[in-house]
């Protein structure tokens, strides 16, 4: 595969790998750009497998950088809902086509983002860390991750509504997606999505992810919540809208 890719294709893949590094250490939601770019260069299965390995590399870098900043209480409380959502997502996949799944989840995410932003603007915003909030957001995160690899917007809005600092947000997100992507890894290998030829592409792109992640770490250190929250919100909306295109 390394020799079959043209120079323009490699340029696109490099930009996508940089987006993954930035998404993991500074700008959650930027990974959607990587999804779109990878899909323009590689076939669907190869694209998914190649990205998963790079996402895991980014996850490990993010954990190293933000290992002391995660809110473990929040992560533990989300687990039951996420597991239930994964089961529901698997059942949904048996009934719906790929196109219908993407459109349905796109509409669902846009509605969730709008509702979350509305709740955050209320004079007395509800506590989403309560049982109902954890159940709803955890289940939706598991469902959308399983059905369309689109759990990012759900967890992003949940962590924003939880009023995390920039570093706590990034640390909690890093551990959440590392665990989720690690669970996906053996399934991807078993399905033949990750193969030796895709690993060679990953090996070529790993340095780009590392450099972009380091740049993202610097960027995150110079951002406060007044800049971070609106920027992440815009990227999250674009992530959800991408599924509707």
From TrEMBL:
Its main location: membrane. GO terms for cellular component: plasma membrane. It holds the Pfam family TauE. It is found in: Cell membrane. InterPro entries: TM_pro_TauE-like (IPR002781), TSUP (IPR052017). Keywords: Cell membrane, Membrane, Transmembrane, Transmembrane helix, Transport. It is a multi-pass membrane protein. Belongs to the 4-toluene sulfonate uptake permease (TSUP) (TC 2.A.102) family. This is Probable membrane transporter protein. It comes from Actinomyces ruminicola.
